[in-house]
Amino acid sequence: MKAMILAAGKGERLRPLTLHTPKPLVRAGGVPLIEYHLRAIKSAGFEDVVINHAWLGQQIEDHLGDGHQWGLNISYSPEGEPLETGGGIFRALPLLGDEPFLVVNGDIWVDFDFSVLMKPLKGLAHLVLVDNPPHHPGGDFALIDGQVHNDAAQPRLTYSGIAVLHPQLFAGCTEGAFKLAPLLRDAMAKGLVTGERFGGRWVDVGTHERLAEVEQILAVKS
User: Fold this and answer.
1) DSSP-based helix, strand, coil % in the chain, nearest 5
2) Which intervals hold domain Nucleotidyl transferase (predicted)?
3) How many CB atoms lie within 10 A of CB 24?
4) Which CATH superfamily is domain 3-221 in?
5) CB burial class (10 A; 0-12, 13-18, 19+) of residue 219?
């Protein structure tokens, strides 16, 4: 199974840090955020990683290179202007192949064990969900008996930014910017999205306050 790290966002809420540094290279505990993912992906047994980028993307390529220092093979999918989550993954499909692949948002910090996702995919997507954080109290999707539903009447969890997707999820899509969520909702309506709840540490590093939260976690761990 291949892995993809989504790294094309501008990180506008992290300015001025992201004025001259792409968000995935912003440091927490002295380490660029994206390197935590690379270490975890390697530890889980993955070998091939695709990284998309847009804002200051050449810095990401210059910093990470071909991935050999982590024992990985890194390929890049440059976008120029961001294509949003769905469009970015769609453009990278030729690099990802015909089998299900792991997708991880580059702007999260998590102590999730990615190896648990290296198993056959039932349907078109498998989502990792977390308890709703204070900045997103309404959640995204409901998880019922291992199936993910877009049901507002049920208690909802938050999509963590970690998933396994099948390329067929993007059947019929065309090049350009589009979101992933509508594709997932369509697949949910057909019963083709499974999921699991992760109860460990997870931070959506979208603001200075949440970056400081990761710093605090790392300080305790060290």
Assistant:
1) 30, 25, 40
2) 2-136
3) 30
4) Spore Coat Polysaccharide Biosynthesis Protein SpsA; Chain A (3.90.550.10)
5) exposed
SS3 call for 190: coil
What's the rounded Cα separation, in Å, for the pair 35 and 27?
Answer: 9
Among 221, 185, 12, smallest CA distance to 107 is for 12
Angle between helices 57-64 and 33-43 (to 10 degrees): 50
Please give the mean pLDDT across all residues of the chain: 92
**How do residues 126-161 score in pLDDT, each as one tens digit?**
999 999 999 899 999 999 999 999 987 889 999 999
Q: What is the DSSP secondary-structure string of 91-139?
A: HHHHHH-SS-EEEEETTEEE---GGGG-S--SSSEEEEEEPPPTT-TT-
Which are the contacts of 180, defined by CB distance < 8 A and separation ≥ 6? Answer: 84, 85, 86, 89
pTM of the model: 0.94
